[in-house]
């Protein structure tokens, strides 16, 4: 039975997930993620039903970073997904000083599944606190390609609010790459922005076609 009180405790949510875990699903989920992480075997709809109960009962209006960090340390991947759901719920409470905290999450147990959600938090911060954009730009040159992927993706879905100059700088910093996860992210960023400004994307691809991977061009041109 779920134990819920006014405080959101990692161990309580974890126990709730364990009670509905399916070992067969855990095998498939682990295989899908290339055996990178352990899974309880709780699929997304059920996980969100469980975590939502705890999120609603939490009395904290601010972001509970103690909860986030403890949950992120849990060896089962579903607990990192709980954090991502929580950050999405608390997105409007994010502030400029949270950027380094999100960066720490991105560099701990990184894989595309967490990076591609953390980009929403980074995107919100950089959009509402422009002084943080210089740090995101620095990430785009980092040796850690997951951090670079995060920088590339952080303006996804921002449409007319996209900082085009920043987008171009970040993309240019990641040209001439052989890393699949970077070239995929470049293509994704171009494809997404092409829905808002197809002429800019066409011009970018033409300008840098000799330095873009064929995969990035194919992905970025999907809606052109």
UniProtKB/TrEMBL annotation:
It holds the Pfam family DNA_alkylation. InterPro entries: ARM-type_fold, DNA_alkylation. This is Putative DNA alkylation repair enzyme. The gene is alkD.
């Amino acid at each position: 039975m779920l134990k819920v009180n006014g405080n959101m405790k990692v161990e309580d949510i974890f126990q709730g997930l364990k009670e509905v875990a399916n070992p067969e699903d855990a095998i498939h989920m682990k295989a899908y993620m290339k055996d990178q992480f352990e899974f309880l075997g709780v699929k997304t709809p059920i996980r969100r039903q469980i975590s939502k109960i705890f999120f609603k009962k939490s009395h904290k209006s601010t972001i509970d970073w103690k909860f986030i960090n403890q949950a992120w340390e849990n060896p089962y991947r579903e607990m990192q997904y709980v954090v991502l759901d929580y950050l999405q719920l608390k997105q409007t409470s994010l502030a400029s000083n949270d950027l380094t905290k999100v960066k720490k999450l991105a560099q701990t147990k990184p894989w595309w599944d967490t990076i591609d959600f953390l980009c929403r938090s980074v995107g919100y911060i950089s959009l509402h606190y422009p002084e943080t954009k210089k740090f995101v730009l620095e990430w785009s040159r980092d040796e850690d390609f997951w951090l670079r992927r995060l920088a590339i993706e952080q303006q996804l879905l921002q449409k007319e609010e996209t900082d085009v100059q920043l987008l171009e700088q970040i993309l240019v910093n990641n040209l001439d790459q052989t890393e699949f996860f970077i070239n995929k992210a470049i293509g994704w960023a171009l494809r997404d922005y092409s829905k808002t400004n197809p002429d800019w994307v066409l011009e970018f691809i033409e300008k840098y076609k000799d330095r873009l991977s064929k995969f990035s061009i194919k992905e970025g041109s999907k809606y052109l």
